[in-house]
Amino acid sequence: MRRGLFLFSNDLRLHENAALRRIASQVDELLLVYCLDPELFRPRFCQTPALGSHRLKFIQESLRDLQAQLASMGQRLTIVEASAGRTIPALVERYDVTVIAQAQAIGLDERRQWQALQQQLPDCRFIEANNHCLFDVDELPFSLSGLPDSFSKFRRKLGDQLPSPALAAPASLPPPPAGWRTESHAGYSAAGEQRFIGGETAAIAHLKNYFSTALPTQYKATRNALWGWETSTKFSAWLANGCLSPRRLLDTLIDYEQSVQRNGSTGWIYVELLWREYFQFYALRHGADLFSFSGIKHQKPLTSFYPQRFRQWCEGTTPYPIVNACMRELNASGYMSNRGRQIVASCFVHEMGLDWRYGAAYFQRQLIDYDVASNWGNWQYLAGVGADPRGHRHFDLNKQTEQFDPDGDFRRHWLGEDTTAVELDHIDIVDWPILREGQ
């Protein structure tokens, strides 16, 4: 009796899950596990937990949807509130597991955890497959160590190369071992809803809804809007948590271009997918440097630690209304437009003079579409220590406000009447109040 264990992570789906299909074809019984590590809820870098309430809610919805799908196949996903490093060895011993599989890890901590398990369980065979990227590493026209140092070079190197089509969901899975009880769970349906609901069911519903409209042909003209459900594709949360495969999205986009229309906007959706792709390989290539203050350029930016400024930025109480509106949207919903992210990150680095890693860590906590590679890679890009050949990207806040919120609708929605200008600092370096003229 060959018994296997599959560890779900950021691949909370059945379609295009190469690692799951591989282990399912090689074992007679299969345990399915997801580990929710309590360390994610404890303060870490800059005293910020890695997992906030919005992100947790989306993950929980995704897990319940996955449980419901697996239950219909006679399987069960067990969610364990412990680290994989503690959970997996205990299950291997209890159930005599000989094969362990998971999606290829992108994050440094996850890769180190996988390596530690391999060292701890030398008698087990380990399977890892790409579930998160368009291309497998060995499909790239260059080695990982030869990854181009900018996105434009990466895109040119790829040329017209396309990835393999997405795999369908498996028709069946090996049963769980005796005693690994199967339970049914209510799933989620997102038909007609205009908000982020976790899970593969909601992801596929949104995919079908989006490409049944003319929105893909208008994307390039609306993608920089600060808000609005239909202004951008809104696939990011499902891609980040693995509810939707980027290959499935690309297959649908290609079908749309062939059967409906192909133009600059549909082409730009693919460009955005390639940006996401570039940052995945960027994270694999640079490892710990992804989180380094000096970035991949090994050049330390000039910053200081201003705890009051950091708090103002997080709470949306800075002297900059457009930044405040964006941050209050993030805190209320767990989401912010791409344009908004660039605005607040530029402000964080330039106007406020703060360590970019603190901003990246706060985004990690709050964003429902948090992706380790895209988040930290983009923050490096804005801070001038990453893949941007031009260096620092400094956005003029007044110009951004005039261009993207000329009527003030976005600010009024999130700020109400709270437009009072505040000072950036009200205490000095030894915590004495700063007296202004006339005080």
Question: Layout of helices and strands, plus pairs?
Answer:
Layout: E1 3-8, H1 18-24, E2 29-35, H2 53-71, E3 77-80, H3 84-95, E4 99-103, H4 108-120, E5 125-129, H5 151-158, H6 200-210, H7 219-222, H8 236-240, H9 246-259, H10 264-286, H11 307-315, H12 321-333, H13 338-351, H14 356-366, H15 372-383, H16 397-404, H17 409-415
Parallel strand pairs: 1-2, 1-4, 2-3, 4-5
Helix pairs in contact: 3-4, 9-10, 10-15, 12-13, 12-17, 14-15
Report what the structure shows.
With 439 residues, the chain is of the alpha/beta class. The protein has three domains: 129 residues, 3-Layer(aba) Sandwich (Rossmann fold), CATH 3.40.50; 88 residues, Serine Threonine Protein Phosphatase 5, Tetratricopeptide repeat (Alpha Horseshoe); 120 residues, DNA Cyclobutane Dipyrimidine Photolyase, subunit A, domain 3 (Orthogonal Bundle), CATH 1.10.579. 43% of the residues lie in helices and 6% in strands. It has 17 helices and five strands. A five-stranded parallel β-sheet has the order 3-2-1-4-5, sandwiched between helices. Strand 2, helix 2 and strand 3 form a beta-alpha-beta unit. The longest helix has 23 residues. The N and C termini lie far apart (81 Å). 41% of the residues are buried. About 3% of the residues have low confidence.
